[in-house]
Automatic annotation (TrEMBL):
This is Transcription factor Pcc1. It holds the Pfam family Pcc1. It comes from the Eukaryota. GO terms for cellular component: EKC/KEOPS complex. PANTHER family: EKC/KEOPS COMPLEX SUBUNIT PCC1 FAMILY MEMBER, EKC_KEOPS COMPLEX SUBUNIT LAGE3. InterPro entries: CTAG/Pcc1. Belongs to the CTAG/PCC1 family. One of its GO terms (biological process) is tRNA threonylcarbamoyladenosine metabolic process.
């Protein structure tokens, strides 16, 4: 994600997961929900079993709030995903 002067605060997360299937599932599930604020941009991608998330925001506060919300959603998705993987679905 290119940094622009209007979105100077950036963060890139690389989250290793147990399988590429879980990384892809998480990316698809999380990409459905757009950022609530126009002051934040997010992109999701996968690289094998790693979920990559790139954020840019107008302020550090906006970045922090968005990332906190993302981790809450990620927790829900992963709890369900792990349960399904263990069950062999």
């Amino acid at each position: 994600m290119a940094t622009s002067t209007s979105f100077p605060c950036t963060l890139t997360l690389s989250i290793p997961l147990p399988s590429s299937h879980l990384a892809t599932t998480a990316s698809r599930a999380l990409s459905v929900d757009a950022e609530l604020s126009p002051l934040v941009r997010r992109s999701l991608s996968t690289d094998e079993s790693t979920l990559r998330v790139e954020y840019s925001a107008t302020t550090n506060r906006m970045l922090r709030v968005a990332v906190n919300g993302f981790f809450e959603s990620l927790g829900v998705v992963l709890a369900k995903g792990y349960k399904d993987e263990v069950a062999g679905r």
